[in-house]
Amino acid sequence: MEGREQSAPVPKGRMQVRVVSLAFVVALVFVVLVGRLWYLQVLTGKQYYSRSQITSTRKVEIPAERGVIYDRNGHVLANNKPALNVTVVPAKISRGHLKKLAEVLGANTRDVLARYDAAKKIHDIYSPIPVKQDVDKDAVIYISEHSHEFPGVSVTDDFIRNYPDGSLAAHVIGYVGSIPPNEVGKGPYKGLPNDAIVGLSGVEAQYDNYLRGKSGYEKYNVDAQGRIVGKGDKIDAMGRVVPSGSSSSSPAPVAVKEPKPGDNLKLTIDTGLQQVAERELEGAIQRAQEAGYAGTGGAVIAMNPENGQILALASRPDFNPELFAGGITGRKELAEYRYLMSPQANSPFTDRAIAGTYPAASTFKAFTGLAGLFYHAITPETTYTDTGACWRPTGWTNGCWQSWREFDGTGTTHGTQDLAQALGDSNDKYFYMVADRIWNQTNNVNLLPHFYHRFGFGERTGVDLPGESAGLVPTSQWKKEYQKQVGVKNPEAWTEADWINLAIGQGGLQVTPLQLIRAYAAIENGGTLVRPHVGLEITNQDGRVVKRIDPKPAGKVGVSQQDLAAIKQGLAMVTASNGTAGPQFSNSPLKVLGKTGTGQTSGDPVGWFVGWAAGEHNRPPLIVLVMVEHGGNGEGTSDVAVRNILEYYYGISQKGSSTGQQTVQTGIPQQD
User: Fold this and answer.
1) What distance in Å separates the CA atoms of residue 479 and residue 498, rounded to the nearest whole number?
2) Cα–Cα dist 159/134, whole Å
3) What is the pLDDT at residue 669?
């Protein structure tokens, strides 16, 4: 066609050259690919097969040894002993096989399965969970012989807690155990391994972050079947691990992190005084029962009123923390635990010293007296004459308030008494009068309840123990809300009658023994509201102090020294010959200031006594409180126990304790 150039045809020879060249290139590429394939499959196939089998690493935990708990003098209260513990990885075992393993080992099957279910629920199935602690050699042999039946199970060297003195100071020390199944990965346990052992009560829980330490680990290479493979080891075509020439029988870890042991904790507790205090508490309960009262429990506290250091604290009924040391397993342990949790055991895990709340009764009169002085409703010389007639608030024509003497069967009255005498004789009518006078000089219907707050009532003391109760000081708002809550159809108004009941420690008032002893400590020390505490210091494994535990006081109560002196005069008369506790202190060489109390409850009354020895300068001061739950009045029960504890503390020889047993002097307690 016109206008179009014609291309010259390619010569036949040149075309042949191009085809041959292309064929050569294709053949060369094919040879290279075949050679590479032969190299990978034949020459280095085993090497790559080995690498393909070593697919991950396994971290084996090295447990940290928990810190030791000492008393103030270095006596061991809690330490550790070696043990073998069984754990399992939930991802590698079925629920049915785990149930069988727990049954074979005598573990608490319900708890084990609950932890298994919790791990599945939070998708943490590769962290080990505990099955049983402190297993014997027979259990280890059984597991090794049935490893095919229980995949993911490990037996590890570990430590379990040891409490050399058994139940002594159980509510202070507390106990340890596995993380509760419903709390795994939550709150304070967030970030901890599922098989961690933690403090669950007492100082074991309060100072758990210090005591627990930090676990270490050894990291190993593992193959696809989970077998540990040493460095340089290979796996043959049959899937068998072939150790390298340098490998030992036990493959070395590829990485190691050493555990950090927990810090040690020194308490303010003195073991000798603690032993005496517990014995005296039991004696007080026994005397109450012998007198026909239920005597269902009680509490004792011995505290330095100047700095809040608690030298002894106990609650009854109690428990032995050794029960939890290796986990609750076996028929005997499970039976004991079930009993402790039953109504018949009467709540032995409740620390009545800090969590039990009771009417303060006549022990509260000291603070009503201080309120009268503070608001100038009375002076120390103000008197009231009890003729035996009904007492009524000013302007009232109905109602009849009497004092305890009108009911004791002796036919006596209090007569004419001033403030100190009214405290010594626990004259209810005198303190009715105090409340009446304050009520009639103010428009603030909560003035008296708010005064009691100055001494820490109605709020937690801040003691370094978990589970403290705040108690209750009733107010007009509280009464309104309470009646609404319980569905009262015709609610009563807040009136002076509420104050009158409150003035003698009744009428809805609820205090803990620790609140009451702290308030009395403020009277003893001149008006400082201390922070009670059982921790003294924390040290590391080298003995270096990590933390000193010396909390600042909560503040001042804001009353004058003259007013406090007037109250102390009355407290001294309580233990004088004509006082409510006079017979129990008649021949004591100590000058004890204190107060009895009989708190009215739905059952038998609560018996109180709180007191301290005045003028004893050879020792740091000590204030002691004993409460017997449903134990009648405190006379002949709680007051005797307080006397014996104080005499022991000040080194006074005793023929026998309140239980009839010889009081053994194990050394005068030391205080800082």
Assistant:
1) 10
2) 8
3) 42
